Amino acid sequence: MNSGIIGWVSSAEFTLPGQEPSVAGGTMKVRISRAGVASRVEKEDRVAVEAPLEYMLHHPALGPEPVSFGTTMRTPGDDENLAVGLLFGEGIVNRASDIDAIESSTRRPNVVNVRLRPEVHMETQIATRRFSAGSSCGVCGTTGLDAAIARAAAIRIADTRAVDLALLFSLPERMRSAQSKFGDTGGIHAAALFDFAGNLITAAEDVGRHNAIDKLVGELLLAGRLPLKEHIILLSGRASFELTQKALRTGVAILAAIGAPSSLAVNLALASGLTLVGFLREKHCNLYSSPQRLTDHGEYAQV
Hints:
24% of the residues lie in helices and 27% in strands. Residues 1-24 and 298-303 have low confidence and may be disordered. It starts with 26 loop residues before the first strand and ends in an 8-residue tail after the last strand. It is α/β, with parallel strands linked by helices. It has a domain at 163-295: Cytidine Deaminase, domain 2, CATH 3.40.140. The chain contains seven helices and 15 strands. The strands form four sheets. Strands 10-9-11-12-13-14 form a six-stranded mixed β-sheet, sandwiched between helices. Strand 13 and strand 14 (286-289) form a beta hairpin.
């Protein structure tokens, strides 16, 4: 697939005196005191980098100058995937070919430019749409929340074959082994994609839960892998509304989370036919919707 997409990664970050500048891996070395009841030890530690990223949209309907689509806090790296995943989740783009070019700005740090093809339909409210989100929130700055809920509620997940529960129980450890930044810092969320045989397709990490899944979805869209069908998305945290609606946009059959779902996430899953799993552990989990996709009578595929 050749959609004319190109990209660079920006690297300028804010650092405090005496701290190591952030590295390409999205972590930063800091000096700490490890304090105990009767001891205190000076040592080095690594923390996840959190820095702003502004999305600039280019489209004829928006005028000759780019329009800011908003700013979010994220862990640097895979910024292009993050931007594409966000725009896909918002319904602004539906396929990789909707994007003419995407690049991180070489003149303004922490800015990614997305040039949409002229034939992409732009809603009139997009020009005035703004959000400013922290790394823990995906829709808290969105002005189109009602539209996002309506879009998600209209999606219907196709019927699929069943997956053995034993396979599902094995996935958190497989995702954990792919989380290099979490291993360095203990402060990074992840989203991972598995097929129904339990094979890890890809994984993304970010200090923000919604950013991790946006990076994952953006990578899948650019690779031409959407829509999904017999696949599982696993989240390292909880399954909130924004994460569930982003997963629904991909067509994935099963959304599993290490943490709890929210009430709206459960309602969306019930309405769409998505299998929603919470509190996934090595030997048990909670099934909130479409439990027929998970069985303890199937044959466990060793991978």
